[in-house]
Amino acid sequence: GQTYFLPAQGHINQPVQRPRQRLYHRPGDKPMASQEEEVDEEESFKEEVDRLIRRHRNEKYAPELLPYDKEMVHNISEVLHFVAEALEEYRSNGQAKDLPHHYLRSTEAERLTYMLSDYLRLRLWKLSKYPLHYMDPQRQMMLSSAERIWLHEFWDNKRMHFQHRFLAALPEKKQALDEQVDDNLDMIRRPQMDTHIYARICGDVGTISPSLHASPGVSSTPGTKDLRLFEGETYLIRYKEIRKFLVEPDHDGKVELV
């Protein structure tokens, strides 16, 4: 079977309107592209799948929520929807029996469906873990519109639960849930940016300057030198040192968490 899919374009958060694409031909379909075009489209779809794998892996290992990739979610969802329709039509016509490529397509579609669902599920888990942290308007720019709605409803329900269970019994000035005196006295639960992660370098990231600010209870190391990270190597490093390569569009794809 041939694949028909346009290459990814645009900013990470800027969806591109595309016509419905062909990943799986229905019975009786006529050829729609030359062999060269089919190869290009196969490669374009492979790039979309690689993009999903990278987004899922980075979201899984990053301590914080990463920018939502609306275009990738839209493209993969459209393809999976069409594949499901095509597979169902093959089954209803009795043409799927003992066809190896049918089972391979079905298995691959299930794998991508799981990965996309888990990507979205990981994001909701982080929102439920750090709701007040992501109520900040600037951080909400990294969320999808559906995630923003979910977050506000989740926090409203949680705050109401706290109010009924114990906050109402406290003095009014003690009922706040978002007080912050300084970095060490903060009621808001936040992601741990000092967490160590494994990062594979996939592009030219140049030299980074490690922060001299130590975590609570850990003495700082004087005279820390700049670090040169080489492409193709994997490093154990603090997340905040390579964070910009995961959240800034200009550096997208240069670092992959493993």
UniProtKB/TrEMBL annotation:
<dbReference type="InterPro" id="IPR036224">
    <property type="entry name" value="GINS_bundle-like_dom_sf"/>
</dbReference>
<dbReference type="InterPro" id="IPR008591">
    <property type="entry name" value="GINS_Sld5"/>
</dbReference>
<feature type="compositionally biased region" description="Acidic residues">
    <location>
        <begin position="35"/>
        <end position="44"/>
    </location>
</feature>
<feature type="region of interest" description="Disordered">
    <location>
        <begin position="16"/>
        <end position="44"/>
    </location>
</feature>
<dbReference type="GO" id="GO:0000727">
    <property type="term" value="P:double-strand break repair via break-induced replication"/>
</dbReference>
<dbReference type="InterPro" id="IPR038749">
    <property type="entry name" value="Sld5_GINS_A"/>
</dbReference>
<dbReference type="GO" id="GO:0006261">
    <property type="term" value="P:DNA-templated DNA replication"/>
</dbReference>
<protein>
    <recommendedName>
        <fullName>DNA replication complex GINS protein SLD5</fullName>
    </recommendedName>
</protein>
<dbReference type="GO" id="GO:0000811">
    <property type="term" value="C:GINS complex"/>
</dbReference>
